[in-house]
C-alpha cells in the first residue's frame, strides 16, 4: 500500500480533535461583534457613567454631556476598544512561544496544556456579571487571545506533521475551515433572539471555552506526531507505532528514512536558532521571506475590513437587514473554504493563492467603484454587494487557508517550530495593525479605502508569482531542494545531489 495515500479513522479523529482549537479561535474572533451595543450598555452601567433612565428622560436634551447610548461615553469607548484589541495583543505575545510549547511535551500534550487557558477565559467571561463586567471581559479576552496565539500555531504544525503527503493540503486547509465555521457559529448565536441579548450575552462569550473541554477529552486518543517522536526525542519504535496508528498497516521504511534525513539535517542547525540566524542563513532566508509574506498577504488583503465593516457596507447599499447579509458572508466563507479543501491537492497551493490574490485585487477595485457611484447609479449598490461576496470567495480559495499550513511545508523539522512561531506573530501583529488603523484610513479615504488594498494585493500577487514554488505532492526534502535551485521542479534523481549541496551550505552557515 502506498504510504502517501492512507486515510484512516485514527487520522480523521486526530485532525478533527486538533481542529477544535481552530474552531475556538474562529468563534473568539467573531463573537465580540454582534452583541456590541448590549455589552457597551453593561459597561456603562458598571462604570456608573450611564443609565437607561437618564438616557430616556433626557433623550431630547441638547446637552453634549448627555449620552443617549452608553457606547458614546469616552470611558465606555476606551474599555470596549480594549476588549477588542486585547485579544490580538494576547495572540501577538503567545505566538512567540509556539515552538517552545510544541517541543516541551509534544504537539498533543502541548495542545492539552494550553486548554487550561481557554477554559479559564471562558469562565471569566461567562461569569462576568458577578463582578465588574468590563474588567472580567477584558481579562477573559486577553487570556483567550493568549490561547489562540498558541493554538493557531500548534494546530497547523500537528496536522502538517501527521498528514499523508498526498492529502497534506486538504487536511492543512481544515484549520481555516474550522476557523470560518467558528466565526459563522458566533454570528448566528450572537443574534439578539438567540444569545446576543441583555440576559444571555455572558453565556455567548463564555461558550468560547467550550470546544477546549471536548478537545481535552479527545486528545488522549490522538497519536503523537511521528516526526516529533523520531526527530526530537529519537524514539524510532514509538514513531513507527504512531505511523501505523495514523496510516494503517503499510511499509513505513520510506517515511522513517525521510525522518532520519531530517534529523541529520536538524543536528547541523543551532539548538535554539535566533531570528538573526534565520535571516543571515542563505539556506532559510528565502523560505522565511515567503512564509512571512504569505501571512502579510492574508491580513493586509483587506479581508478583516470586510468582516468588521460588511454590516455598514450592506446598510449603505440599502439592505434592510444587514446583519443577515453579514451572516450570508459567513456562509459563503465556509462554502468556499470547502472548495479549497477539495481543490488544494489537485490544483496546487501556488495556483490557488495566485487566483485568490488576483481575484481579490479585481474585487477591491469593483467595490471602490460601487461604493463611489451608488448614489448616482442605484444599481451600483449591487456591484458593491457582489464584489463583497466574490472578495470573500477568492480569499477562502487560497489566501485564507493556505498560509496557515504552507509554512509547515516550507521548513524541515528543525526550523519548523520557530518558523511557524515567527509567521504566527507576523499574522497577529498585522491583524492588530489593521484593526487599529482601518477606521482612521477609512475616515481619510472614504470610498477609496479599498484601492489601498488593491495595490497591496497586486504587490503580493507579483511576489507570489516570482518566489513561491509549488509544494503539492513533494516531500520536505524536495521542497528544500526547489528553493535552492529556484522555482523549477527538480527530478527526484537529482534530489540527493541538491541535498548534498544544501548540507554543505548549512555547514558553512553554522561555521
UniProtKB/TrEMBL annotation:
SUPFAM superfamilies the record matches: MFS general substrate transporter
Transmembrane segments: 7-27, 77-100, 112-132, 138-159, 171-189, 201-221, 323-344, 351-371, 383-407, 419-441, 447-468
Ranges of residues in domain Major facilitator superfamily (MFS) profile: 14-472
Signal peptide: none
Record-linked CDD domains: MFS_GLUT_Class1 (cd17431)
Keywords, in A-Z order: Membrane, Transmembrane, Transmembrane helix, Transport
GO BP terms, alphabetized: D-glucose import; dehydroascorbic acid transport
Subcellular location(s) of the protein: Membrane
GO cellular component labels: brush border; plasma membrane
Keyword GTP-binding: no
Source domain of life: Eukaryota
InterPro entries assigned: GLUT, MFS_dom, MFS_sugar_transport-like, MFS_trans_sf, Sugar/inositol_transpt, Sugar_transporter_CS
Membrane topology label: Multi-pass membrane protein
GO molecular function terms listed in the Swiss-Prot or TrEMBL record: D-glucose transmembrane transporter activity
Gene3D superfamilies found in the cross-reference section: MFS general substrate transporter like domains (1.20.1250.20)
One Pfam family named in its UniProt record: Sugar_tr
NCBIfam families cross-referenced by the UniProt entry: SP (TIGR00879)
Family: Belongs to the major facilitator superfamily. Sugar transporter (TC 2.A.1.1) family.
Protein name: Major facilitator superfamily (MFS) profile domain-containing protein
Species annotation: Channa striata (Snakehead murrel)
Amino acid at each position: 500500500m502506498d504510504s502517501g495515500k492512507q486515510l484512516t479513522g485514527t487520522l480523521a479523529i486526530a485532525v478533527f480533535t486538533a481542529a477544535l482549537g481552530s474552531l475556538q479561535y474562529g468563534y473568539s474572533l467573531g463573537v465580540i461583534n454582534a452583541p456590541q451595543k448590549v455589552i457597551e450598555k453593561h459597561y456603562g452601567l458598571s462604570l456608573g457613567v450611564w443609565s437607561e433612565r437618564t438616557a430616556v428622560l433626557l433623550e431630547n436634551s441638547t446637552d453634549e454631556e448627555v449620552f443617549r447610548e452608553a457606547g458614546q461615553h469616552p470611558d465606555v469607548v476606551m474599555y470596549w476598544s480594549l476588549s477588542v484589541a486585547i485579544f490580538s495583543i494576547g495572540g501577538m505575545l503567545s505566538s512567540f512561544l509556539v515552538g517552545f510549547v510544541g517541543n516541551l511535551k509534544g504537539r498533543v500534550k502541548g495542545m492539552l496544556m494550553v486548554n487550561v487557558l481557554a477554559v479559564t477565559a471562558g469562565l471569566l467571561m461567562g461569569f462576568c456579571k458577578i463582578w465588574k463586567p468590563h474588567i472580567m471581559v477584558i481579562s477573559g479576552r486577553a487570556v483567550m487571545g493568549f490561547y489562540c496565539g498558541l493554538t493557531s500555531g500548534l494546530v497547523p504544525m500537528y496536522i502538517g506533521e501527521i498528514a499523508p503527503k498526498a492529502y497534506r493540503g486538504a487536511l492543512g486547509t481544515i484549520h481555516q475551515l474550522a476557523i470560518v465555521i467558528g466565526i459563522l457559529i458566533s454570528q448566528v448565536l450572537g443574534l439578539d433572539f438567540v444569545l446576543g441579548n441583555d440576559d444571555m450575552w455572558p453565556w455567548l462569550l463564555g461558550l468560547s471555552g467550550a470546544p477546549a473541554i471536548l478537545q481535552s477529552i479527545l486528545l488522549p486518543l490522538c497519536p503523537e506526531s511521528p516526526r516529533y517522536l523520531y526527530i526530537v526525542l529519537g524514539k524510532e519504535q514509538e514513531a513507527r507505532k504512531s505511523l501505523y496508528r495514523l496510516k494503517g498497516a503499510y511499509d513505513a521504511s520510506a517515511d522513517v528514512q525521510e525522518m532520519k534525513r531530517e534529523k541529520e539535517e536538524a543536528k547541523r542547525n543551532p539548538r535554539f536558532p535566533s531570528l538573526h540566524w534565520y535571516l543571515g542563513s542563505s539556506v532559510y532566508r528565502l523560505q522565511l521571506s515567503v512564509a512571512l509574506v504569505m501571512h502579510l498577504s492574508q491580513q493586509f488583503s483587506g479581508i478583516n475590513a470586510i468582516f468588521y465593516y460588511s454590516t455598514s457596507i450592506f446598510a449603505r447599499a440599502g439592505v434592510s437587514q444587514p446583519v443577515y447579509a453579514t451572516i450570508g458572508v459567513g456562509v459563503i466563507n465556509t462554502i468556499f473554504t470547502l472548495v479549497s479543501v477539495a481543490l488544494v491537492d489537485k490544483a496546487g497551493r501556488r495556483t490557488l493563492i495566485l487566483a485568490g490574490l488576483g481575484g481579490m485585487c479585481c474585487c477591491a477595485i469593483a467595490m471602490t467603484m460601487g461604493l463611489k457611484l451608488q448614489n448616482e447609479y442605484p444599481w451600483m449598490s449591487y456591484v458593491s454587494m457582489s464584489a463583497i461576496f466574490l472578495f470573500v470567495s477568492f480569499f477562502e480559495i487560497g489566501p485564507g487557508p493556505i498560509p496557515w499550513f504552507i509554512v509547515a511545508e516550507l521548513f524541515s523539522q528543525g526550523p519548523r517550530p520557530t518558523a511557524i512561531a515567527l509567521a504566527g506573530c507576523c499574522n497577529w501583529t498585522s491583524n492588530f495593525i489593521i484593526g487599529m488603523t482601518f477606521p482612521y484610513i477609512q475616515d481619510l479615504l472614504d470610498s477609496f479605502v479599498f484601492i489601498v488594498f488593491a495595490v497591496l494585493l497586486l504587490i503580493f500577487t507579483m511576489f507570489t508569482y516570482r518566489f513561491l514554488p509549488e509544494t503539492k505532492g513533494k516531500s520536505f526534502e524536495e521542497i528544500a531542494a526547489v528553493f535552492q535551485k529556484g522555482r523549477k521542479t527538480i527530478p527526484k534523481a537529482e534530489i540527493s545531489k541538491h541535498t548534498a549541496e544544501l548540507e554543505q551550505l548549512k555547514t558553512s552557515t553554522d561555521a
